[in-house]
Structure formats: structure tokens, C-alpha cells
Specification:
Elements lengths: L16 H4 L6 H7 L17 H26 L3 E3 L20 H48 L5 E2 L18 H5 L10 H32 L2 E6 L3 E9 L10 H6 L4 H5 L9 H12 L2 E2 L2 E6 L2 E4 L14 E3 L2 H18 L5 H8 L7 H7 L7 E18 L19 E6 L2 E9 L24 E7 L8 E7 L14 E16 L18 E2 L8 H4 L13 E11 L8 E17 L10 E5 L6 E3 L4 H7 L6 E2 L4 H10 L13 H20 L2 E4 L14 E12 L5 H26 L8 H10 L4 H4 L7 H4 L3 E6 L7 E5 L8
Parallel strand pairs: 7-18, 10-15, 13-20
Antiparallel strand pairs: 1-22, 2-23, 3-22, 4-21, 4-22, 5-6, 6-7, 8-9, 9-17, 9-22, 10-11, 11-12, 12-14, 13-14, 14-16, 16-17, 17-18, 17-19, 23-24
Helix pairs in contact: 3-4, 3-17, 4-6, 4-17, 6-17, 14-16, 15-16
């Protein structure tokens, strides 16, 4: 609606106090009904709000919604910016984590820090501008509400006439008269009108709170923050089985990756085909392995990792030694390869697949997960996957024979009983329970006080006739010359490896009840006498209630024996071990500035696991030696074994607690851990539904945590700020509607309000009770306010008949 103006002709102007105080029946009422009155010569008088003002008020209110909606969208969408707060293209920022120049990452960090600081400073100014903008909208809204209320016959208490101009004065809401002014005793105000007044006051209080909080709220929404974010679980596959029960395969991870062995090599057990790479790596690792509180450190390609075996040379631990798997760790290597390629410009999926020419191309879903690297300041990749644990025990010479130089003729401390052509039983006396990993329910038992647990005879199955997982292999460590000018050979060392489906433990060497003693004659290598009936199923039966039950399935044994022509019976040192399978969480941070050792962690290590059979050929492959072959003496692994064989005091006996003995047992155990890292597995396609509790065939889950600049609603503060912004949007929309509906009230400034009040000549007896009222009571006096161009301030006050009732 257009505003109406009237040109006023010249003429004198005068004020009559009596006329100004007349009631509605006098000439003052007639003047009120007129739209235009003469006050100054030639003056154009506005009586309604012109349409440009209305449109401007509505546009200002609506336009404020645009940046607020944009900010809410960015925050609710969790929009990720990148490595810098000012990173318009998302991936246009590159922190140089994998650049050949190690200083580039540090330089970019300083550059991005400055850019981010400058941007955040500018955004704070934006937040302040949005706050001021909203304060103007809120002023219009409350002003229009006030004028709408005041134009009615019941008017509004004088306390609320300037409420629109005091919205920023938050503590006004705690002043008593803000609330006492609601209890007007006006006979002209009915229940509906009183309720409307309550709505007005409460609305104005809420708007006041919004004005106070809008500044911090917009700042929270407009300023991005650095946060750790996570991708959703991505199932790369489902574990089918470990290939440990079978020899290494050319299609498996160990041989397939190196591509050095043929099918014929595998069939003929020529595991030296893995040399030189793997054998040298084992030699180097055994010589330079790092002992620390966290465990023994390994490496796979650029990634290092550790077992949880500590450096106190005491491998007897109440939990297994868990060793990360190289096949799974190699996935982290692929991640790093992709990241490097993407950072050097190979960013599209097609280019990435062409660049690496992998047998299995990168999927679109996996590629999108790799894209987060472009936005990451730092990141951590995690994979839930398989891990193998080692439970080992040593067998040195029994204490009760250590005073003897040589055993009696025909007596062997370790003996083998031949059952038939394809079955043998090999026994180790005085096997000490406290040296091994035992059932958790017995972990608090005082083993030294229970002699029977320190005097077991441990018997294993040897020969293919027992079952598919009963196998054995051996190799020899080459002998050196004892001196450069001597033709006499030094001692050799033979290493034998056994795997058994079942193991029997005989307390104090006692056979099971009812079994013929001739079935197993201690310390003598001989066959079972002809005609003797032996129940070997009973002998190797597993009692699940026994403390040895956990050690009776899929047991493995490694023997090292010195062989020399000048000793009739040489020393034998043995280690028995089990391999347990379980799942754990692997974590790797690819940034060289944060993870300088490229170390992959294993978190949440399990306590127990399921025993799995291990083919002895994996041990040969670990040492890169053929079945029945010989390791040359110039290898570090050979020297370690020969050091034991030639150690002073170790001839016919392998006595524990000597320096060389401790070195030997720790290095042999380390070689077993090295073997566990190499055991590969096969994977089926990813299941449709993730079941993390499926222990037999667990899913392999990939996830990335990354640190980046982002908008989000992850905190209570951001959610509260969003609520404030949404309430502000409601006020802006209401203002837009209000301005279009009510065009009869042009905006008046606080100065206009004061001038109009000064122009009003009150009837003291009607309005203020002849001055006998207090200020709090006076604030409750209601006035009707109408536009009037007969007054300089543009507003006319009419006192509502409440003065005599206000008390």
C-alpha cells in the first residue's frame, strides 16, 4: 500500500492544554479521526507505511534467512573442507605428507595455519554482521507487535512501549516491573486481552534472549573446526581359513607376492627358492631385532610392526605372544601407494586403476574412502582382521640328570616308540607345566607346590598314520672348519620340526589306567613288542576338564641337536608351541611426520584363541631351506645355532639359565614369530550383513579416521547454536508476514517515542492519581497509541481509564 501525504497550507500553530486532555467526546476526538492535519507550511505528512519501506523490511528479513540456511546446511551435512580452513576445492590443498622433500609438509603446515587464521578472523566479522542484522529484524518484529497491541482500545502498559529498543539489555527481564506490569486492573482488558499481553511479554523476552545469543550462535555455525571424523565400516572380505595346515602355495600371499617359487619347487619342498630376499630378512631381523617394553619389532615393506613379547627374556607369559599378519598389513601398504598416487595427480578412479594395473581393480566405494586423504590433515587407517598367537614352552635337560656327563648306554632322554610303519610316539620327560601357557582357570595356582605339574612326560604323534596334520621335517646347519689350518670338521646342528594332531601328558610318566607298560618303555628307542595290545585312542584322548586340555590339540615341536663325531650322544634342546587364531584391530598412521617409524599397532589384543594346525614346511619356508637341506654357515641364523652347539658347558646337556641358552631360546622363538607373520589366509567375498561375532569366519573391516577442517553438529554447542538460529529464522519469517499485514504503523525511532511522550499532556487525576503513584505503579498504566501527524513525534498517547484501579 502506498503511503498517503497531504500538503499543509501556512498558518499559525498553537497548543491548548485543555484541548489536548479532552476526552473522546471533544474536538480532540474529531482531530484523531482526521488523517491529515496542518502543522507546518508545505510539510508532507506520512500517515501509513509506504510500500518501499514495507518491501525493504520484508527483503531484509527474508535475505537474512539465506546465510543462516546455508550455515545450517553445511553443519547438518557435516561438510568437510580440507587440510586448510580455506580450501575451496576440497582436494586443492596438499600438505605434502609423501613429498620427496621432507620440509614441504612443515612449510605447508605453516602456510595453511596462516590461511586458516586469516579466514577465521574474517568469519568472525561475518558472524557479527549476522548478529547485528538479526538485531534489526528483532527490533522491527517487537516494534510492530507493540504498535499492534497499543493501537487497540486496551492499549499496553507504559513499561512495554519501548521494549523493542531494549532487546539487547538482557538483564531487563530480571527487573520486577517487567513482570508486575502484566497485572493491570483495567476494566477495559478482558481475559483474552490479558492473555495476549502475556504472549507479547513472553515473546519479547524470548526475542531478547535470541538477540543476546545470536552472536555466539552464528559464530559457532560460521566457524569451521578441526575434528577427527570416521568413515563407515567397509567390509573388504570374509576370512575363509588360514592356509597353515597346508604347505605354502604359489597362489598364496607369501609366494605369490615374491613370485620366486614354481609349482615344482613347492612339490619337491625346495623352500630355498624364497632366497635371497626372505632368508636375508630373517637373518637381519634375528640379529637386529628390537626389544622394547611393547614387544619385538618386525617390518613388512615400508610398515613396521611388533609382537607383544617383552624384553625380559622370559617368554612364559599369562597371555599368548600375538604377532601381526603380513598379508593384512600389506593392505596398509596398498593404502599408502594409493595415497601417494592421488597426491601426485592420479586422482580419478580410472587413472588409479590404470596406474597400478591390479588384478582386482579398486571399487568405487573403496575409492571414495581413499578420497578422504585429500582432505585429511592427519589420518589413521584401521582394519579388523586375523592375528595369530604363539604359546611356547622350552624343554632343556631335566634337572635330575644335569650332574651326569653322559647317559647310560642305550638310554635317551628323549625317546621314540615305534607303533607301526607309519606311526611313532616321541616322548619328552619332566615337562614342566609352569613353563607353559596354561588354562586361565588355573593361573593363580602355586605351581611350585604341586610337584606333579612339574613332572609330566609329554608325548607327541609322529608319522602320517596318525592323521592329516601329523607331519615332520628337518634340515641341517652346515659345519665350519674348527681352524683355518685344520681339516677337522666342527659340529653340525640339526633342526627337526614336528606337528601333531594330539599330544598326551602323563603325570609322573604314568600310563593311562589299563594300558600295558610295554606299550611305552621310557628312555628306550624301540618298537612296541609283538603281540602287545595298546589302546592309542585312550592314550591320546583329551580330557577337557584337565589343565593340559588346551595344550593337547595341534601341538608343534622344534628340536635343535648338536651332531659331532666326538660325542656319542649330543644335547637336544626343544621348544613346543601352539598357534592360536583370533581377531584384533590393526591401526596405521601413514604420515611420516607423526609416525616416523611407519609403525602399525595392534590394539585390543585378545586373551585366548582357537588352536590351528601348522604344517612344518612353513618353518622351512621361514628359514628358506629345503626339506632335508643345509643352511650355509655364513648365514646369521646358522651362526646362532652353532653358537649354542659350541657353547662352553653345553655338550651332552642343554642347561637353562646360561647366557647362550637364553640367546638360543629367544632367537628360536623369534623365528617362530617370524613364521607366524608369514602364514597367509584366503578370503571370500564380503557378506551382505556384517556379523562381528562370527569368530570362525570373521569379516575383515576397513575404516579410516581422519583429522580435517569441517562443519558438523557433533557437539552440544553446535546443536544449541542451530536451535538458536532456527528460532531466529522463525522471527525473521514472522517479521516478513507482520510487515505485510500491518502497514498502518510506520517505523518510529526511540527519539520519536520520546518526543511524542513529551508532547502528551496527561490528565494527572485520570492517569497518575495526582502523583500519588510509585514508579512501579506508573509503569502499569496503559496507553493507547495511534499515529498522528498533528504531533511532531508522530504518535498520540491516550490514557486508558486505569489510574484509579492500578493499585
Amino acid at each position: 500500500m502506498a503511503g498517503r501525504y497531504e500538503s499543509i497550507s501556512p498558518g499559525p500553530r498553537s497548543y491548548d492544554a485543555g484541548a489536548m486532555a479532552m476526552d473522546s467526546s471533544g474536538s480532540d476526538k474529531e482531530q484523531e479521526s482526521e488523517k491529515y492535519e496542518s502543522i507546518e507550511p508545505g510539510r508532507r505528512i506520512l500517515t501509513t507505511r509506504p510500500w518501499p519501506s514495507t518491501l525493504g523490511m520484508q527483503l531484509a528479513s527474508i535475505l537474512w534467512l539465506a546465510p543462516i540456511i546455508a550455515l545450517l546446511y553445511l553443519n547438518f551435512k557435516n561438510h568437510e573442507i580440507g587440510q586448510s580452513a580455506w580450501c575451496p576445492g576440497g582436494g586443492s590443498c596438499n600438505n605434502g605428507t609423501y613429498d620427496a622433500n621432507p620440509g614441504l609438509a612443515a612449510q605447508n603446515a605453516l602456510k595453511y595455519s596462516k590461511e586458516s587464521r586469516d579466514l577465521l578472523g574474517s568469519l568472525q566479522l561475518v558472524a557479527k554482521a549476522l548478529e547485528i542484522w538479526f538485531a534489526l529484524i528483532a527490533l522491527w518484529f517487537v516494534y510492530l507487535f507493540t504498535m499492534r497491541m497499543a493501537s487497540k482500545d486496551h492499549g499496553v502498559p507504559v513499561e512495554y512501549l519501548t521494549r523493542a529498543y531494549r532487546l539487547g539489555e538482557f538483564f531487563e527481564i530480571f527487573r520486577p516491573r517487567t513482570w508486575t506490569s502484566l497485572s493491570s486492573k483495567s476494566t477495559t482488558r478482558n481475559t483474552k486481552e490479558s492473555a495476549l499481553l502475556w504472549i507479547f511479554v513472553i515473546t519479547s523476552v524470548v526475542v531478547s534472549l535470541l538477540c543476546v545469543l545470536m552472536g555466539p550462535a552464528t559464530a559457532v555455525l560460521v566457524l569451521p573446526t578441526q575434528q577427527w571424523l570416521e568413515t563407515k565400516d567397509y567390509v573388504t572380505g570374509q576370512l575363509k581359513e588360514f592356509n597353515a595346515a597346508s604347505p605354502p602355495s604359489v597362489s598364496g600371499f607369501l609366494l605369490g607376492q615374491k613370485q620366486r617359487c614354481s609349482d615344482q619347487d613347492v612339490q619337491e619342498k625346495r623352500w630355498s627358492c624364497i632366497s635371497p630376499g626372505s632368508s636375508y630378512r630373517l637373518d637381519y631381523w634375528l640379529v637386529s631385532s628390537i626389544f622394547a617394553g611393547r614387544g619385538i619389532q618386525f617390518s613388512e615393506a615400508p610398515i613396521s610392526f611388533a609382537s607383544n613379547m617383552t624384553d625380559d627374556q622370559n617368554y612364559r607369559s599369562p597371555v599368548p605372544v600375538w604377532v601381526p599378519n603380513r598379508q593384512l598389513l600389506w593392505e596398509f601398504t596398498y593404502d599408502e601407494m594409493y595415497y601417494k598416487a592421488m597426491q601426485t595427480g592420479t586422482t580419478s578412479l580410472a587413472d588409479l586403476n590404470d596406474h597400478f594395473s591390479l588384478d582386482e581393480p579398486i571399487s568405487e566405494e573403496l575409492y571414495q574412502r581413499y578420497r578422504v586423504f585429500e582432505k585429511a590433515i592427519e589420518l589413521e587407517n584401521t582394519r579388523e582382521g586375523p592375528i595369530l598367537g604363539l604359546v611356547a614352552n622350552q624343554w632343556p635337560a631335566p634337572e635330575w640328570v644335569q650332574d651326569n656327563d653322559t647317559p647310560p648306554d642305550g638310554v635317551n632322554w628323549i625317546w621314540t616308540t615305534t607303533v607301526d610303519e607309519n606311526r611313532q610316539v616321541r616322548c619328552y620327560p619332566v615337562w614342566a607345566m609352569q613353563n607353559s601357557y596354561w588354562n586361565q582357570q588355573y593361573e593363580n595356582l602355586d605351581w611350585e607346590s604341586v610337584p606333579v605339574y612339574n613332572n609330566y612326560t609329554r608325548c607327541i604323534q609322529v608319522g602320517s598314520g596318525w592323521g592329516p596334520n601329523t607331519k615332520n621335517e628337518s634340515f641341517t646347519i652346515e659345519h665350519p672348519l674348527m681352524s683355518a689350518n685344520s681339516t677337522n670338521d666342527g659340529p653340525e646342528a640339526e633342526i627337526r620340526v614336528y606337528s601333531s594332531d594330539r599330544t598326551a601328558f602323563l603325570p609322573n610318566g604314568t600310563l593311562p589306567s589299563g594300558m600295558d607298560p610295554d606299550c611305552l618303555r621310557p628312555f628306550i628307542d624301540e618298537p612296541v613288542p609283538f603281540g602287545v595290545e595298546c589302546d592309542w585312542e585312550q592314550f591320546f584322548a583329551i580330557d577337557n576338564s584337565s589343565v593340559t586340555a588346551n595344550m593337547s590339540r595341534f601341538a608343534n615341536t622344534v628340536e635343535l641337536q648338536q651332531r659331532t663325531s666326538n660325542l656319542s650322544t649330543s644335547a637336544i634342546y626343544a621348544i613346543d608351541y601352539m598357534v592360536l587364531r583370533n581377531n584384533t584391530l590393526y591401526a596405521y598412521i601413514p604420515s611420516s611426520s607423526v609416525n616416523q617409524l611407519s609403525f602399525a599397532e595392534t590394539r585390543q589384543l585378545p586373551q585366548l584363541g582357537a588352536a590351528i594346525p601348522v604344517n612344518p614346511e612353513w618353518f622351512l619356508a621361514t628359514w628358506a631351506v629345503d626339506s632335508g637341506g643345509t643352511i650355509p654357515v655364513n648365514r646369521s641364523t646358522a651362526l646362532i645355532g652353532l653358537t649354542f652347539s659350541q657353547a662352553p658347558g653345553i655338550g651332552t646337556l642343554a642347561v637353562a639359565d646360561t647366557g647362550d641358552f637364553n640367546i638360543l631360546q629367544s632367537k628360536l622363538l623369534q623365528s617362530l614369530q617370524y613364521m607366524l607373520t608369514m602364514l597367509d589366509y584366503t578370503v571370500d567375498a564380503a557378506p551382505k550383513a556384517i556379523d562381528k561375532s562370527a569368530m570362525d569366519r570373521p569379516p575383515i573391516i576397513f575404516k579410516t579416521r581422519y583429522y580435517t577442517w569441517t562443519y558438523s553438529m557433533s557437539s552440544r554447542t553446535s546443536k544449541f547454536a542451530a536451535a538458536i538460529a532456527i528460532m531466529g529464522m522463525i522471527i525473521a519469517i514472522a517479521t516478513t508476514v507482520f510487515a505485510g499485514v500491518d502497514t498502518e504503523h510506520p517505523y518510529r525511532s526511540l527519539t520519536d517515542i520520546v518526543i511524542s511522550a513529551l508532547e502528551h499532556i496527561p490528565d494527572r487525576s485520570r492517569e497518575f492519581g495526582d502523583g500519588e503513584m510509585t514508579r512501579q505503579e506508573a509503569a502499569r498504566v496503559s496507553y493507547k497509541v495511534v499515529s498522528s501527524e498533528s504531533l511532531v513525534g508522530g504518535l498520540r498517547y491516550e490514557g486508558v481509564d486505569t489510574a484509579k484501579l492500578v493499585r
